[in-house]
Design brief:
Blueprint (H helix, E strand, L loop, with lengths): L2 H6 L1 H9 L6 H14 L2 H9 L3 H12 L3 H14 L7 E6 L6 H14 L4 E6 L2 H5 L11 H5 L3 E4 L7 H17 L4 E6 L5 H6 L4 E6 L12 H6 L2 E4 L7 H16 L11 E4 L8 H17 L2 H28 L1 H15 L5 H9 L3
Helix pairs in contact: 4-5, 4-6, 5-6, 5-10, 16-17
The structure holds guanosine-5'-diphosphate (GDP) and magnesium ion.
The site of magnesium ion has 4 residues, from helix 7.
């Protein structure tokens, strides 16, 4: 901060006030120590559990950090928060860039908050760390939601692999739940495998679509349709309304062609205008019915257990893989084997055997 500015800042005034003789010097000392103390892991954990958003942010930063000194702290934070997690509903929201995910989350989030819920919004966007500019949209477009004390918005963790980003998001979910957030919304964009990752950490998967020129199903990945618990045609407003209604029918017909889901839930197609705040409460009703259904039939608990197993396997696989490739002997041999392969002196399988045999 430039010197000049500092002198006229309100902070400086405060500092002056704290120098008053009438102030208890012990209290001043305590205040000076406060910043340091607030950084301790125990303080941080109790801050999170006491629903302090500054502590929550700081704790997430530690989880996301790749610095060696943060690893142990991160483990401790997660361990202590875990018993307080799990008491939420987790909703994944996907759709192509520009479909209106952020606008939808803003409207939807505000509705939930008006019902007294605490809402955390996370994003999984593996591209943001690579291209620097996030493809989730030119701006966050959650200007209103950001101001709500009962909302917590956190953009995607950085990381160079989807696996890394996804893992950090999962851990962030735990911290948000421990901090009392009852609804977790996770925005992701339809690139790579990010929908699969988000699907594997949420209870309900919402696919946002736009009405097109009548050929709605073209270009849609089959797997995404299968994952969806609900398809919402957004921007059902103005001149778009008629096309949106047609799209809704087409998606409905398509959904009926899929075999019944393990959850016994029949996915619903709905219309909404995120920007005009229309159709949002109907979507919430459908989602609420979903949760009533799957909590009653046991699928909710079953799915979370399956997800935990999946993440255990994922973690082992990614750890083994990164440790394997980090081994200098492997690095050297890999180069050799790649060259041999190039010169037709070995086969991929023989080369792999040699590499895997390295201790
Ligand atoms: N007409 C209309 N425009 C919308 C609606 N929802 C979002 N938009 C606009 O679509 C653009 C992309 O929205 P955004 O929420 O950033 O999409 P995202 O990339 O999926 O997060 C913005 O210009 C929004 O104002 C809607 O319901 N109706
Ligand atoms: Mg967005």
């Amino acid at each position: 901060m430039p010197e000049k500015k500092k002198n006229i800042s309100a902070l400086n005034e405060k500092e002056g006030v704290s120098q008053l003789e009438t102030l208890n010097p012990e209290a001043v000392k305590h205040l000076k120590n406060f910043k340091k103390k607030a950084q301790s892991v125990d303080e941080l954990i109790s801050g999170v559990l006491n629903k302090n958003q500054a502590s929550l942010s700081r704790a997430i930063t530690i989880i996301e950090s790749t610095a060696q000194r943060h690893q142990q702290q991160a483990k401790e934070i997660i361990e202590k928060c875990l018993p307080h997690a799990n008491q939420s509903i987790r909703i994944g929201i996907t759709g192509v860039p520009g479909v209106g995910k952020s606008t939808f989350i803003e409207s939807f989030g505000k509705l939930l908050i008006s019902e007294g819920k605490k809402v955390a919004v996370l994003t999984v966007d593996p591209s943001s760390s690579i291209s620097k500019g996030s493809i989730l949209g030119d701006k966050t477009r959650m200007e209103d939601l950001v101001k709500e004390p009962n909302a917590f918005i956190r953009p995607s963790a950085s990381g160079d692999t989807l696996g890394g980003v996804a893992r950090k998001t999962r851990e962030t979910i735990i911290l948000c739940e421990a901090a009392g957030f009852k609804v977790i919304l996770i925005e992701t964009v339809g690139v790579g495998q990010s929908e699969t990752a988000v699907h594997s950490m949420t209870d309900f998967f919402l696919l946002l679509k736009l009405s097109g020129a009548g050929d709605e199903l073209q270009g849609i990945k089959r797997g995404i349709m299968e994952m969806a618990d609900s398809i919402v045609i957004n921007k059902a407003d103005g001149d778009n309304l008629k096309a949106a209604k047609m799209a809704k029918n087409e998606f409905n017909r398509a959904l009926h062609l899929y075999p019944p889901k393990e959850s016994d839930w029949a996915p619903k197609t709905l219309l909404c205008s995120a920007i005009k705040n229309e159709g949002i409460s109907e979507i919430w009703e459908v989602i609420s019915t979903y949760f009533e259904t799957v909590k009653a039939n046991g699928y909710f608990q079953h799915k979370r257990k399956e997800q935990n197993k999946f993440w255990l396997m994922q973690t082992i696989e990614s750890r083994l893989k990164s440790e394997f490739y980090a081994n200098p002997l492997v690095k050297k041999e890999l180069e050799k084997q790649l060259k041999a392969l190039d010169e037709n002196k070995t086969t991929p399988f023989e080369a792999a055997e040699k590499l895997l045999a390295i201790e």
